[in-house]
Amino acid sequence: MGFDFESTEAMAGSIFMGAGGAMPAIWTLIAAIVCVYALWSGNRHEHQAYDKLKK
Questions:
Q1: What letters, b where the CB count within 10 A reaches 16 and e where it falls short, cover 29-47?
Q2: Which pLDDT band, with edges at 50, 70 and 90, does 3 fall under?
Q3: Which residue from 39, 14, 37 is spatially nearest to 24, judged by alpha carbons?
Q4: What Cα–Cα distance (Å) separates residue 29 from each residue in 1, 11, 25, 37, 43?
Q5: Mean pLDDT across the stretch 23-31?
Q6: Within 13 Å, how many C-alpha atoms sit on residue 46's CB side?
Q7: Dihedral of CA 6/12/13/16: which sign?
Q8: Pairwise CA distance, residues 51 & 44, whole Å
Q9: First CA to last CA across the chain, in angstroms?
Q10: Separation CA 13–CA 9 (nearest Å)
Q11: pLDDT band at 16 (very low <50, low <70, confident <90, very high)
């Protein structure tokens, strides 16, 4: 088990197995949604904490 670094003949095909499929786009969309939710949730919490402190 290993890789022959002296020859590049084994690197002829696609290295990324998911190339050409829909899953990379779906996972990217899911990751973007999670990031946007985290930003929205944090912003909402900060406003609630600020309003609580103001009272």
A1: eeeeeeeeeeeeeeeeeee
A2: low
A3: 14
A4: 35, 29, 6, 12, 21
A5: 94
A6: 6
A7: positive
A8: 11
A9: 66
A10: 9
A11: confident
Q: CA angle, 26 as apex, 21 and 32 as ends, to 5°?
A: 145
Token reading at 27: 């996972």
Question: How many residues in total does the chain contain?
Answer: 55
CA-to-CA dists, residue 43 to 15, 25, 35, 48, 49, angstroms: 40, 27, 12, 9, 10
CA–CA gap between residue 18 and residue 31 (Å, rounded): 17
- Average pLDDT value for residue range 13-32: 84
- Does the global pTM surpass 0.85? no
